[in-house]
Write a structure and sequence with these properties.
mainly alpha; 6 helices; flat
């Protein structure tokens, strides 16, 4: 794009406008994400008679802050919440693995600890490993 004085002036105006914006508070930034919205929902859920009431209260607050609703309706949020829970359930299983994977990992850690202890004892006694 060819730079002209007009283009440069308009660019400077936009950048000045953006520079004047205040940074979002951490809580607002968090609420702006799907995961943050879900986290606030989970905190509100036990404080309302129904899950839907908690969702609607949160949506009302979200709309007051952002000028629009996060989700089109309760059912759309339920789908997102279900996917979020399913994803996190998988992540927990991937991190910790099955019981057999944990046992194998623990055995390896124990074997490594025994080898380190044997090396230290050998070094302290001054004899060569047998």
């Amino acid at each position: 794009m060819k730079r002209t004085t007009d283009t440069q002036t308009r660019r400077d105006d936009v950048l000045a406008e953006l520079s004047a914006l205040q940074p979002m508070a951490d809580a607002v930034r968090k609420l702006s994400t799907a995961a943050g919205f879900i986290e606030y929902f989970l905190r509100l859920e036990p404080l309302y008679a129904t899950r839907r009431e908690a969702y609607e209260a949160l949506e009302d607050r979200y709309a007051a802050i952002f000028g629009r609703f996060r989700y089109s309706e309760w059912r759309a949020f339920q789908v997102v919440l279900s996917r979020h829970r399913k994803k996190n359930r998988k992540n927990v299983n991937n991190v910790y693995g099955s019981k057999s994977n944990i046992d194998v990992h623990c055995r390896k850690l124990n074997d490594d600890a025994v080898a380190i202890r044997d090396n230290r004892e050998t070094e302290e006694s001054g004899s060569s490993p047998g």
